[in-house]
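Loading example: each entry is read as two labelled lines plus one structure line.
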Amino acid sequence: MNNETGFASFLDEMKWRGFFEQCTDEKALAELLTAETVTAYIGFDPTADSLHIGSLLPIMGLVHLQRHGHRPIAIVGGATAMVGDPSGRTELRSMLTLEQIERNLQGIKEQLSHYIRFGDGPQDGLMLNNADWLKDFGYLEFLREYGQFFSVNQMLTRDSVKTRMEHGLSFIEFNYMILQAFDFMVLNRDHGCRLQMGGSDQWGNICSGIDLTRRVNRQEVYGLTFPLMMTAAGTKMGKTASGAVWLAAARTSVHDFYQFWINVDDRDVARFLRLYTLLPRERIEELEKLQGADIREAKRVLAGEVTALLHGRDAADKAAEAARALFGGGGDAESIPSSERPEGDFAGDGLLLLEALVESGLLKSKGEARRMIRQQAVRVNGEVISDEMRALSAADIRDGRIALQVGKKRHHHILVG
RNA sequence: GGGGGGGUUCCCGAGUGGUCAAAGGGAACAGACUGUAAAUCUGUCGGCGGACGCCUUCGGAGGUUCGAAUCCUCCCCCCCCCA
């Protein structure tokens, strides 16, 4: 189809980039993909008004799909969010209100639009809310129309159910599979959707959808799953000091987002370049050859590319600039995260460093700030501070700013105005 | 419905009347070493106050006690077996 990607086919590219875990009837799917514009979908959870880095993999899956001339559908599980979060453990499942879901949906759509071209064209993406077709569906109606198509025996054999059986699962959780299968069937019926993609944990649900679609719509549809993303260190993808890495700049600043990728484990760089950037194959293979400290160059490319995709090239460049200023010497200090304070705050006894550290967001509490100071982790204008009661005064202002630093990586400038 | 087991700090998991803010491990953070990496060693790891201190926490609500995560009552949730 479209060859700006440098790959013969969508599946080829997915395999090379590491998205491909398994799929149903690969041969038939490959043929379908070369024969026509295929509509494919992935589901996202609207449990927050922003997606986080964990969703980046499926997002990129849709991006590649669209680049190969196919049509992506992002479906947001408004209906599933209405009945509760399946990942909840001991605590009550949080059930979101319709308004919350609507708000979250808008936030997510905004984010996805950085990656996917939405619109009315044949290859333009769609964003749909499954609440639209599930919300008013009556229980009896559902049972009457579709109950016969679901085999409990088969559902019980799904891995996703089996693993949950050990710790118990509620009827709600058991039903996600049915809801998701129903989504696939509806999307096929109303939008000609032929493929569902998702994490490997979705395999069972996807298969259920394929079965249902075959039975109800009498059409063959396909499934493709991505591998479970773990870091080389064996932890879940996307955690930092301050929690999850979000796509929303309001939750994770561009600077922190960029830094996240810079700080990736050496062993993950090659894999991440393939998965999270759109760089051509030759460029990535070139970067993969780098060894030792040179890998940092690959990390800079990775961080720059991933950040640019989400926040734009300008913002990514600024983040790179800040990084250079903080770690490389040189560079422009303007891009370092900062806050403003009136000059008056530094008159007389000045402002307690402890408070400045907390208010700047560098640290969570004064207790933590105290501990950090005790551990020689706090610097003001590059100087290690050992006095917990240290106050910031006019004497600390350099070029209209005071540079705070915690550890080696966390920086904040107070701009005095 | 009956019987048994269980819900502990971010996660796993000890603790069964005071010495428990709660063992141990993991994660995380910091210091040293480095390459803003990994590995390793060391330290920190509920909140507030300079410290001897105070406050909040062990599924929820009450109660017994000088004193409870630990005992009692009721409730909620989970697992297993029986019906």
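The radius of gyration of chain A is 25 Å.
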